[in-house]
Amino acid sequence: MRLEPREIDGVDPSLKELLQKRAERIRRKPAEAEDENLLWVAEFPVGEETYALALETLRAAVPLRMVTPVPLSPPHVIGILRFQGQILTAMSLSSLLGGRGWREDPAVLLVVDPGLGGRLLALDCERIPKPVPLPHALVEEARARSTGAVAEVTLPGLHQVNLLDLRRLMDRRESEKRDA
Question: Less Cβ around it within 10 Å: N or C end of the chain?
Answer without folding.
Answer: N
